[in-house]
Recover the amino acids of this structure.
């Protein structure tokens, strides 16, 4: 029982990070129907930016988010204005062209990091990096708890923006029905730029958080990108709660699989990759879609 | 003869180039032959991928799995006493089986969803392969001694490259190629016209998987050493995709041009530190430029240039003007 | 006329044999200078270049009647196995290297080691201890002793702590190894020792992939097993990443090692006091009590500004061994260099035991040292006993 609680708690903590990491991907997909493969590169770049701020100025990685996230918001807007804007729009679904273009951006970002910081593994050491607090006979790492708290705060903050401000409402409107939103006077181009900025800023926050937990290289982020993609597919691609739900499900599956089965731990990453394929194929609408489908069957009966 | 040449303008340079490749061991040095071998390998990968990714428009980022299956089959069976040549068809058969197993579920997905799923499959295969005992883990495996014969391997690889090109060219001209074309342009319309899309995609996937796996087997014999990190690598999948995209998808010449460009780049990259440090800039930059300006790659650019030339002239000669009208 | 010039140019390009100086020793080296193994790969580069520079500054190497300068071509394989082998091939076919200095990292050297056999070129590696690499080809030599013996040395060290009463059997072991030949050899060394020594038991044994990002699931299993000893075999990057998570999870063991890693300055910078009391076995230590070691240390520091770690020393000594063999061979013929390597007996070497030789498989088999980190960035040599600079602390004291 005690083991169960510890594993569940660890899953919950991981889910917070996973949700932050995935939300950036979801908001861009929602507004533009673009799968942002550069997400991994942006997370990596933000991890390096956080590290550099810490290394140069001794800035705490969590405080540095106050600088890094807005900077990446601007970077995202710039990326939109220089590259994404010129892509042909497709109403139906994401285009191959956008996927490959952003893939190119990812590669360029990786090389940028190699050029600036070299290929060495970097990590951030703060006074609390190695601290942990006892809990129910186990221990929880302080950075993990902090990451969870900041994740929740940022997601709640974003949710408020989406629900209370005109901009947020417009973003949600475009996500739900682009044509209707444009008919009611929403400037879709502007909204897309802002959404890309928000998505990039969330990638940056996730990157800063990851940098407090893990060591990283310019190659960092691929497995996290696939996890994030798995989460938004699980979450039905566009809804806010869907992302949170997907993050929880993936984190619980991963943690419980390694705690309660004898699958070699080196296969842990394969869990999310396999889950991604299975969900894409078996339940393209993600968990909400599955839920609606089951619901309909019950009603029909 | 002239009619044939007019219909296939690439025939003469193609035949000359093939002859050059086949005669190269007579006069060229080993270093150059290594480069040519690599080029032929890339042509196999790019052209085989193009069958599914280009003609049928199903962009897969998981092709290193087939290289790995072919390479591992060859190494494992060779270590069990088989002749490396006999392992090639086995590797191809396993790759076909795997391509069907992966294709059956994932071909239900469309466009980028399919692509993302193939990244997932490719990564899962790599992770599992590195964890398996018989793959040698990250240390990899070696071929048994005495299995290395460069010239035989060279001819086999060049032969495979020519075979791949001929096969793709032949398929393109026949009903199967047209079916793939239809799937790429509009899968629903193709279905409505009676194209069995899943079957066609599975077939294209299987053919290209077999070719790539044979290439992987020859790769293993030539390098005498493989590891999951070298044959199941994401970067390999990436290179396989970039070659046809940069060269020009859904054409015969595109992937060949891409393969020539990338094998040249790779040779240069190996030799020059500054270039090596920026290969991702080059790859990523090419991808961005191609996607923004010319999604049909080098071939598209060339066609556009040729198409533009008469228009630029102020007063076209009478003959040309007449032909153009 | 123009046509003839063109033909001439074409002929030169095709036959393209650049003129090479006859009186030089062309040494090729392929190292991971960028990528995952870059930290230690870079140290090998520095050490290799220093050893070559010293030989050239001394007027070159005596080969037969002539003194020849050493021409080093050093390439970067970006820690990529396929590229690594290709580059060795390129050095042999295009640079016409007389001998090759192998890379760092057992998996990379494993990939390289198939090439020398193909062309009949002597190959000496100073950065791979996995036994699977050696004994297959008569051209492949290595200065790092077998990893199995490294593990055995660590177990002997622990067993001695038991005899001293510092640790008490029965002791349970968590054994984590990377999924490479290096890791397999380490696990074999530990398991072989346990077979002949009652009182030890492995309660959890897991493999991990190189450069794993998240070690939490792996360490979660270790935590549940509640072992007394934590024995891992990791590369530097993995040591840093794993030990970081280990400390965050508040794990504790009576003794902890990551094989050859522990005293590395890079790890101490990345992990801080969390590396205190970690013990490590190595192929070399700057604490070895030989005069030539002290002299080497000062010379190295003066030339490069860095204090040599075991990889600097072994990289340096590997080049010296190769040049000594070439000098002994009195010729640049591959067969003669190979024969000289087989019979090499390099006295006054800086390696433990002071004499560098190769066994029948081509791999060196020298004693190992054990060091332990102490608080304040101090490191003590704690094994072998006759060379120790401080007492081993066991079990690791609670904070």
């Amino acid at each position: 029982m005690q083991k169960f609680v510890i594993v569940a708690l660890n899953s919950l903590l991981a889910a917070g990070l996973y949700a932050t990491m995935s939300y950036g991907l979801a908001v861009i997909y929602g507004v533009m129907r673009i799968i942002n493969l550069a997400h991994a590169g942006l997370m990596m770049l933000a991890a390096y930016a956080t590290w550099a701020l810490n290394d140069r100025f001794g800035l705490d990685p969590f405080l540095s988010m106050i600088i890094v996230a807005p900077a990446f918001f601007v970077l995202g807007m710039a990326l939109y204005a220089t590259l994404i804007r010129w892509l042909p729009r497709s109403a139906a679904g994401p285009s191959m062209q956008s996927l490959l273009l952003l893939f190119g951006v990812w590669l360029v970002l990786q090389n940028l990091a190699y050029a600036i910081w070299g290929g060495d593994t970097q990590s951030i050491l703060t006074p609390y990096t190695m601290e942990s607090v006892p809990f129910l006979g186990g221990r929880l790492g302080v950075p993990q708890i902090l990451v969870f708290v900041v994740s929740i705060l940022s997601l709640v903050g974003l949710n408020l923006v989406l629900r209370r401000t005109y901009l947020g409402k417009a973003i949600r409107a475009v996500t739900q029905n682009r044509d209707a939103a444009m008919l009611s006077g929403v400037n879709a181009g502007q909204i897309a730029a802002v959404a890309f900025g928000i998505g990039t800023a969330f990638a940056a926050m996730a990157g800063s958080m990851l940098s407090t937990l893990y060591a990283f290289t310019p190659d960092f982020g691929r497995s996290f990108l696939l996890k994030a993609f798995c989460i938004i597919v699980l979450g039905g691609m566009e809804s806010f709660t869907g992302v949170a739900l997907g993050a929880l499900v993936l984190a619980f599956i991963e943690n419980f699989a390694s705690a309660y089965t004898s699958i070699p731990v080196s296969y842990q990453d394969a869990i999310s990759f396999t889950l991604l394929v299975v969900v894409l194929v078996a339940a393209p609408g993600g968990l909400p879609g599955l839920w609606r489908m089951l619901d309909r069957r019950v009603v029909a009966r | 003869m002239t009619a044939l040449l007019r219909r296939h303008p690439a025939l003469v340079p193609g035949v000359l180039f093939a002859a050059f490749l086949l005669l190269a061991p007579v006069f060229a040095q080993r270093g150059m032959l290594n480069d040519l071998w690599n080029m032929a390998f890339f042509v196999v990968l790019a052209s085989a991928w193009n069958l599914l990714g280009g003609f049928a428009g199903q962009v897969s980022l998981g092709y290193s799995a087939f290289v790995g299956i072919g390479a591992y089959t060859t190494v494992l069976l060779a270590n069990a006493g088989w002749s490396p040549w006999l392992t090639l068809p086995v590797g191809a058969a396993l790759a076909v089986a795997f391509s069907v197993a992966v294709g059956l579920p994932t071909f239900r997905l469309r466009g980028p969803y399919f692509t993302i799923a193939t990244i997932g499959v490719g990564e899962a295969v790599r992770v599992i392969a590195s964890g398996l005992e018989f793959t040698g883990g990250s240390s990899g495996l070696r071929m048994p001694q005495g299995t290395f014969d460069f010239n035989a391997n060279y001819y086999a690889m060049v032969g495979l490259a020519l075979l791949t090109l001929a096969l793709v060219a032949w398929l393109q001209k026949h009903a199967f190629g047209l079916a793939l074309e239809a799937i790429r342009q509009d899968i629903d319309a193709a279905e409505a016209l009676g194209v069995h899309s899943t079957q066609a995609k599975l077939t294209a996937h299987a053919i290209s998987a077999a070719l790539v796996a044979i290439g992987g087997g020859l790769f293993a014999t030539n390098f005498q050493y493989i590891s999951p990190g070298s044959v199941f690598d994401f970067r390999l999948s990436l290179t396989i995709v970039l070659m046809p995209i940069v060269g020009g998808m859904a054409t015969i010449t595109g992937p060949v041009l891409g393969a020539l460009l990338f094998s040249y780049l790779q040779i240069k990259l190996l030799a020059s530190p500054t270039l090596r440090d920026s290969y991702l800039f080059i790859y990523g930059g090419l991808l961005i430029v191609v996607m923004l300006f010319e999604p049909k790659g080098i071939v598209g650019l060339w066609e556009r240039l040729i198409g533009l030339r008469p228009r630029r002239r102020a007063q076209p000669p009478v003959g040309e003007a007449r032909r153009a009208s | 006329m123009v046509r003839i010039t063109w033909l001439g140019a074409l002929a030169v390009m095709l036959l393209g044999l650049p003129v090479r100086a006859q009186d030089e020793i062309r040494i090729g080296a392929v190292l991971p200078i960028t990528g995952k193994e870059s930290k230690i790969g870079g140290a090998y580069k520095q050490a290799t270049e220093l050893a070559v520079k010293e030989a050239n500054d001394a007027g070159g190497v005596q080969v037969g009647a002539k003194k020849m300068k050493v021409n080093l071509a050093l390439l970067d394989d970006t820690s990529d196995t396929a590229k690594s082998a290709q580059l060795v091939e390129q050095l042999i076919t295009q640079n016409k290297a007389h001998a090759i200095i192998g890379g760092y990292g057992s998996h990379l050297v494993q990939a390289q080691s198939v090439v020398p056999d193909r062309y009949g070129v002597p190959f000496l590696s100073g950065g791979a201890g996995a036994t699977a690499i050696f004994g297959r080809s008569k051209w492949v030599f290595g200065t790092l002793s077998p990893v199995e013996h490294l593990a055995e040395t660590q177990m002997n060290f622990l067993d001695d702590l038991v005899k001293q009463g510092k640790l008490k059997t029965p002791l349970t072991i968590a054994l984590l190894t990377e999924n490479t030949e290096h890791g397999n050899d380490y696990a074999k060394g530990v398991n072989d020792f346990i077979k002949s020594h009652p009182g030890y038991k492995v309660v959890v044994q897991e493999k991990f992939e190189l450069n794993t990002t998240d070690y939490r699931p792996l360490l979660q299993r270790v935590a549940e097993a509640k072992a007394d000893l934590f024995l891992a075999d990791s590369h530097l990057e993995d040591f840093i990443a794993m030990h970081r998570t280990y400390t965050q999870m508040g794990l504790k063991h009576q003794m902890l090692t990551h094989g050859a890693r522990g005293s590395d300055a890079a790890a101490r910078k990345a992990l801080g006091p969390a590396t205190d009391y970690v013990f490590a076995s190595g192929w070399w230590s700057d604490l070895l009590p030989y005069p030539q070691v002290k002299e080497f240390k000062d010379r190295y520091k003066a030339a490069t500004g860095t204090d040599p770690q075991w990889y600097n020393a072994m990289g340096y000594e590997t080049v010296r061994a190769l040049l000594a063999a070439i000098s002994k061979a009195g010729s640049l013929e591959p067969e003669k260099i190979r024969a000289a390597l087989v019979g090499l007996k390099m006295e006054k070497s800086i390696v433990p035991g002071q004499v560098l030789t190769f066994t029948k498989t081509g791999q060196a088999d020298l004693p190992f040292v054990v060091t332990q980190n102490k608080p304040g960035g101090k490191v003590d040599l704690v094994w072998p006993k006759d060379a120790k600079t401080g007492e081993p602390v066991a079990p690791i004291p609670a904070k």
Remarks:
- The first strand of chain A starts at residue 132 and ends at 135.
- Chain A touches chain C through 36 residues (CB under 8 Å).
